[in-house]
Specification:
By secondary structure, this protein is of the alpha/beta class. The chain is built from 11 helices and 12 strands. 50% of the residues are buried.
Length: 302
Amino acid sequence: MDHPHLLHIFSPTKYVSPFDINMAYEARFDGVIPYCNVELDEVHGLTQDTIFSRSPEGVRRTGIFIGGREFGLALDMLEAARAAMVPPFAISVMADPSGAITTAAAMVALAEHWLEREFGADLAGRRVCVFGGTGPVGMCVALLAARAGADCAVVSHQGLGAAQLVADRLARKFGHALSGLDGSSAAAVGTWLGDIELAFSTAKAGVRVLDADLLGQAGALKIAADANAVPPSGIEGVAADDRGSVIAACPHARGLGALAIGDIKYRVHTALLRQMHTAEKPVYLAYEAAYDSARAIVRARA
């Protein structure tokens, strides 16, 4: 009997992203089954419906993908799905809400690579800020940087209070120290930017968080990574296809643009889905696996 590879996509939002569906087929899944408006307390039942509807051989060819838009919720849903498994009826699960985890992994892995290549340093002890750090990509970037030993701060355009709230929430949930910084105005950013060594822009598309004037004040900056592909760039002087290019307004720093980040993100996303597709035993994939994959891909392409 032929057992097709099936991927069930759980989304807590009102729709499942076409990106997630397309990527599943790119990874060679035969069928993709979307579920919308999934709540956390429904994951256990849906998971058991998924695993018990197939034979032991068929269940090995079944996976669950957690989408949506919220970083923390996606991880909670992954853990709820894991807890619902009843071996030998157990399947692989991957979380990547809005592509946030794989994008963040690509950003941090690329920044780490160029930091080592150009400055002979790693992330441990580096002073890092994440603009747009209250969003899903920014939260994951901050978490990954903090896990690597960086002194990392979340930046919010809504001010210090909003940034610190998210930093404290991440610290409580994941056990890594994080702080907040005020990104509400250029004047506010200018008070602390001079000490920053790595700046990540994960703000909304079309929003510029660092202009040339501010970059002129960034005396310690080494790496600036911008995930925004929609003009204007999030960081002035960092073009979408930049891969370690010198930044005109801050010539001692190197820029990483959205296309460079997106290339690695796509490869990571595909690699993790294919890992689910081919795994002989269940795997549970989130930010740790994404970062490991991104680092390996960046090293292989260096």
